[in-house]
Specification:
It is built from 13 helices and no strands. Helix content is 60%, strand content 0%. It is globular, with a radius of gyration of 19 Å. By secondary structure, the protein is an all-alpha fold.
Length: 246
């Protein structure tokens, strides 16, 4: 594990895997103003898997930091994938680096890959939920959204231990606090959490929607109840409402 990969070599590997015909479609789909190379996700997976196997943790941290700073779409996703691993000894620097990226989140794709890395670090040390709680009151919508996305593992647990039940209840409290926020991505994050929870604890999802569903946007309420045996009907949209408020 002594191999060192300079940033230039890493970017060359990403560029070599790029499919230029994909660029225009990816820019439009992800609404990107930053450079996009056109690298398929399967290729990113293969490249970053090899890097994780070949590099020490210190070198992965350094390369991830450098890749992120390039502000290239695929480089930022690769940076997150470099740090997505369940077992990492002495992972404080990994957690700190992931948190340092929060202010840069400006779209779901890069944010979700970084949140997948954060999920692993939260499961490894649930005390970090104290850090995540500070995200929930950020002025930055993508940081607030990340709090729920990074905590999705607690929506997916079965047969919870008391401490995990307390953590789930805590996160549901954050989701409830988001309900008055009319931003589409925030509403979507609530719906995502409750929808995933419904596969493992339908009663808790029903309870959340009974308390907060009427205050959610119709699309979010419907999405949250997608997998419930008794579907939760969306409220009729206000015909006089402007599109951004729907």
């Amino acid at each position: 594990m002594t191999l060192n990969i300079p940033l230039e070599e890493a970017l060359a590997a990403l560029t070599a895997a790029a499919e230029p015909d994909r660029v225009e479609q990816m820019v439009a789909y992800h609404k990107q103003s930053r450079p996009v190379l056109g690298v398929p996700n399967t290729a990113l997976n293969d490249i970053t898997k090899a890097w994780r196997q070949d590099l020490s943790l210190a070198d992965r941290l350094s390369l991830a930091d450098e890749l992120w700073k390039t502000d290239i779409f695929e480089a930022r996703i690769a940076a997150a994938k470099l740090l997505t691993q369940a077992r990492i000894k002495e992972d404080t620097e990994v957690w700190n680096l992931l948190q340092s990226w929060l202010p840069d989140f400006d779209g779901w794709a890069i944010a979700d890959h970084a949140c997948m890395a954060a999920q692993k670090r939260l499961v490894a040390d649930p005390a970090r939920l104290d850090d995540v709680e500070t995200w929930t009151t950020s002025d930055h919508i993508w940081t607030r959204r990340a709090a729920l996305v990074a905590c999705l593992p607690w929506a997916k647990l079965n047969h919870l231990k008391p401490e995990d039940q307390a953590r789930r209840d805590r996160i549901l409290g954050w989701a409830a606090s988001y309900v008055p926020d009319r931003n589409w991505f925030i509403q979507k994050s609530i719906a995502w959490w409750i929808r995933d929870l419904s596969k493992h604890d339908a009663e808790a999802s029903h309870s959340f929607l009974a308390q907060h569903g009427d205050a959610m946007k119709p699309f979010a309420r419907k999405e949250a109840g997608k997998y419930l045996k008794t579907p939760v009907a969306a409220k009729p949209a206000d015909q006089n409402a402007s599109p951004e408020n729907l």
